[in-house]
Amino acid sequence: MTNSDSGEAVESGTFHELILMNHKIRETEHWLKIAKTRRKWSNLSLAFGPLLGLLLYAMGWLTVIPWKAREAIYIPGAPAAVLLIAATFWLKTHPGYPGKLTIGKKRAYTSEGELEISLARLREERKEIVGKVKTNRSVRRIIYKEEAFASIDQLRSESSAYRRINNALQGVLIIGSLAATGAAGLATQLPWVRWAVMALTFLVGISSGFMGYFKYKERSFYLQQTADAIEQEWEAVEVHIGRYKNSKTDEDALEEFVEEVHRLKTEQKKRQQNLEQPSDARESAD
Length: 286
Known about the structure:
Low-confidence stretches: 101-105
Number of helices: 8
Oligomer: single chain
Largest sheet: 2 strands, antiparallel
Helix content: over 70%
Shape: elongated
Number of strands: 2
Number of domains: 2
Order of helices and strands: HHEEHHHHHH
Structural class: mainly alpha
Strand content: under 5%
């Protein structure tokens, strides 16, 4: 075996090692995302479970509310409070990601801290592997092009999450406003309806405030817009249409594609930072 063949074999093995390392990093990132999601749900259940229980308990002392109305609230409310409290106990006593290994009859759980440490270690190992690989500019651009398609899925996933939140708050806003208007007409005949009107008005105010402050609709729109733009560029460079139809070589088209995708990602980050600023700061920046 010549030195060139030996070098190519070593480089091929290093590339394979780099692919496996990227897979481990994505897998660990997925586990960490699940662990964080479980922590968020545990905090939500911890907040709403006891609160719902206290509201149901306080409602039992309000004699102004007829028993039939309280019964209609207790039937779905009591099981929901119990389930939220049980979920809080389970998630708080079993934090982290449910691991694949089992210890006896119990499943092993990996904490967020352990996953973050493992992820940091894998990224450091990946840097060492990348340092061993002598990749030219063309190969790095091809890798960037293939990773752009994964960025499309990530942007659309985030956009869908913000869209669901916005739709839920918009639904509460519409239904709550109509229900509060209708209940206000009955408040003169049924005094206990005033409590329902106050609760509905409170929910409508919270929903409106969250939608106005966090800008869920705008976040979803910009993320979806960036994902569509990157996908359009990705399809255009594949068949050499649009801005790439005059490119003399595939290398020139790939270079222009990398520049355009980088520009789109940079603009998306700027929009994200602009949305996170207060309203007066956004107006002054504009």
